[in-house]
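Can't paste images in this forum, so I'm doing it all in text. The chain is below; anyone willing to post the predicted structure tokens underneath?
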Amino acid sequence: MKKQEYEEISIATVETSSDLKEETVMPSHSLNIGRFMILPKRKVYCVAMRGPSTQDMPQKIIELAEKAKVIILSGFFSLDDSNPEITNGLIFIDFTNSSMKPEEMAKQFRHTGLFKHVQVSAPTPSGFVYDNSSFP
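Text version of the structure:
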């Protein structure tokens, strides 16, 4: 997104009850809505996972990330609605400075027994990556 486009988006026109128009400049803070990221020039992948619920699962994921020299940018975990013994996870991982491929990390998640199902979503050339496995 070009800077000019960003500036145009950050200005909102608000109608007041007296039909007067007031221009409001919104603060330029990022908002994490959890299911997509836009990070141009970075190799950020979305990894959706499903597997048995364990207390040490987040710790094991962090340990694997440290060994692979990747950065976990965001992560969400929740118990499955139909089975509380299953955890669904969604993490955004930056592989920019790592020699590990996202598919290799997915294999490690499966191999360690952390997750039985792992799906990796790659970014677009513009750096847009999103969760395309969860619904809704």
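The domain at 36-130 is CATH 3.30.70.260 (Alpha-Beta Plaits). The chain has three helices and eight strands.
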